[in-house]
Amino acid sequence: MLAPGAQYGGSLTSQINFISLALALVLGTAGLPHVLMRFYTVPTAKEARRSVVWAIALIGAFYLFTLVLGYGAAALVGPDRILGAAGGVNSAAPLLAFELGGVILLGVISAVAFATILAVVAGLTITASASFAHDIYASVLKSHKVTEDEQVRVSRITAVVLGVFAIGLGILANGQNVAFLVALAFAVAAAANLPTILYSLYWRRFNTRGAL
Question: Where are the transmembrane segments (predicted)?
């Protein structure tokens, strides 16, 4: 765990995987719904730019903080204890908190993690359901011939469907490395969301059908 090149420096394929992962984490940040939602929560374009800068800065700080958590857990807790815990590698941060501050810090970290997960899931659900109701159902399927009540109803149904689907995926992903799942989400954002945003800004002939 204290040898950074052990996993990604063994072969050409692993080196390419490392470059791909780095690109996904960097480019995926610009396509995350958490960042894109900043444009809809401010009154002016100037405030939107400032809000996005703050969001990206906080995400970047979080990236750097994960390095501290990882190396700190490896040095203070130890790889054997982490791998032997109930959550495996996913329990590194809670074990580090317990090692440094006992049950009090462990409780704080657990509460922060739960609040973060709840906020992210809520934000993604709202964004996905609203996007489907407005961009796909109203614009593509109904050609803008819908009322606001219909869009709200479709948005609510979409939120329920997405929730059930997400729960199913969560059950299937039980035991997976959280870092891998996060990297997968960033890869999807970098491969799908970011190109759509860039094409919309700089390609005049880009349309809804091309995005889908």
Answer: 18-40, 52-74, 104-133, 154-173, 179-202
What distance in Å separates the CA atoms of residue 26 and residue 15, rounded to the nearest whole number?
17
What single letter denotes the amino acid at residue 163?
G
Task: Give the count of domains, the chain.
Answer: 1
- The pTM of this model reads 0.67
Residue span of the structural domain in which 168 resides: 42-175
DSSP string, 140-180: IISTT---HHHHHHHHHHHHHHHHHHHHHHHHHTTTS-HHH
pLDDT tens readout for residues 42-87: 777 778 778 778 877 887 787 788 888 888 888 888 888 888 887 7
Is 22 contained in some domain? Answer: no
161's tokens: 């469907």
Q: Nearest 5°: CA angle at 37, between 33 and 40?
A: 155
